[in-house]
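User: I'm new to structure prediction. If I give you an amino acid sequence, what do you actually give back? Let's try with this one:
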Amino acid sequence: MLYGGLTLEEALGGRSKIRNRVIAEVFSRMELIEEWGTGIRRIVKRAKEYGLPEPEFLEIGDTFRVNLYRRDHLKTDKKPIRNPYPGSAGRKS
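Assistant: Good question. You get back a string of structure tokens that encode the predicted 3D arrangement of the chain. For your 93 residues, that looks like this:
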């Protein structure tokens, strides 16, 4: 289950929960947010428009991960991205 009791299925359907209203308001005024709850659907729509494989959404505790795939990915098996910086949680020191 995601933040605020939201399920991944609900998020995929367009439902959203605001974690920080102040940041959400600032982003809205800066026009960085078009509409609440539309981001995931836009990601899926754009992938389809560009002929890309459908993104994969994985629930991990109270958050989720999105795997995006390139066109050439259709020719190979799905393989997770390796961490190029072992022991650093994916960030270069």
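You can read the tokens as a compact description of the fold. Here is one thing that stands out. The mean pLDDT is 78.
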